[in-house]
Amino acid sequence: MRKRALLVVAIVIALAVSFWPKTVTQPQVTAPVAHPGTSMGPARTRPDPTGTLPGFLPREARDLIATIQHGGPFRHRQDGRVFGNRESLLPRKQPGYYREYTVDTPGVDHRGARRIVTGGDPPRFWYYTDDHYDSFRTFEAPARERPQ
Fold it and tell me: Mean pLDDT, the chain, as a whole number?
């Protein structure tokens, strides 16, 4: 009976390890650089009711863009902080130029890997990553609506 219990525990541990999120310590050197006006990777089509955002953005990013444009409030305390561009995948700019924001991922109880990074204040350039800064796709955000 004890051997059977140990076998079950070993199987559970093996399964947990196989599903544990993998962390990348080094960014991919060969990852393409996102430049304004370009798009990287295959676009996944997702309808946008406004018709102004690319299909690769998840629904949660669409809501976040409006929140960024209105200056918050943000759900995560890290949102709006300086993004250091340590991976050097975005165009080189002065320190403090980029800001990062969390795109919520349904089904996870942590920040996940999805982010929007903006450039400029107010944001002039918009980048999306779904792999925690290993790659970026650029997009244009719709003009901010003015309150009436």
Answer: 79
